[in-house]
Amino acid sequence: NAGVTQTPKFQVLKTGQSMTLQCAQDMNHNSMYWYRQDPGMGLRLIYYSASEGTTDKGEVPNGYNVSRLNKREFSLRLESAAPSQTSVYFCASKPGQGAGGYTFGSGTRLTVV
Amino acid sequence: KNQVEQSPQSLIILEGKNCTLQCNYTVSPFSNLRWYKQDTGRGPVSLTIMTFSENTKSNGRYTATLDADTKQSSLHITASQLSDSASYICVVTFTSGTYKYIFGTGTRLKVLA
Fold this sequence. Notes:
The structure holds two protein chains of two kinds.
Chain A: E1 4-7, E2 10-13, E3 19-25, E4 31-37, E5 44-49, E6 56-57, E7 64-68, E8 74-78, E9 87-94, E10 103-104, E11 108-112
Parallel strand pairs in A: 2-11
Antiparallel strand pairs in A: 1-3, 3-8, 4-5, 4-9, 5-6, 7-8, 9-10, 9-11
Chain B: E1 4-7, E2 10-14, E3 19-25, E4 30-38, E5 45-51, E6 56-59, E7 62-67, E8 72-77, E9 86-96, E10 98-103, E11 107-112
Parallel strand pairs in B: 2-11
Antiparallel strand pairs in B: 1-3, 3-8, 4-5, 4-9, 6-7, 7-8, 9-10, 9-11
């Protein structure tokens, strides 16, 4: 089982460019999440999808959009990248919105210059 | 304010030695506490989970303790190995309508041969 797969693993963007980070899970989980991880800070929630067809803002949603394409896939889009969005992005999934633990992908390291 | 603080920020030990990592939280109402291990360039992986009524939980050479009265948790690593070199993240779950997660900033452990 692959678990949670993220693509790409690395990306360099110029300020103002757009891109979409892809995430897919094969565990039949209902809930999917996007986090960013910055040095000296805990993971921060950007957006989440409690179930297929729903999306909600997390702690730091500005500058991002998401799409829950189907039960397996949850993408994160940066419409106009800014240097402040330089970070490592993690996709995660859980069976549901209960208190269970996450399964994380291996991350996307994004640099905006 | 809901917060999770971890100490130390970083730690270097020799292979075979024991170590203890600390996590203090001011999260309410508490649901559970998890420790995650994050290898360099990878996503976090769950090590242990403890609820309010659990004082200790082991996973191989990893033993987590929880004191819900003082709101402190520790992760003890016995007979460290080179593969234990990683960041260890404490995550506290609380309920606020839905389940919410507060991530600590992690302790970066380096085990030297």
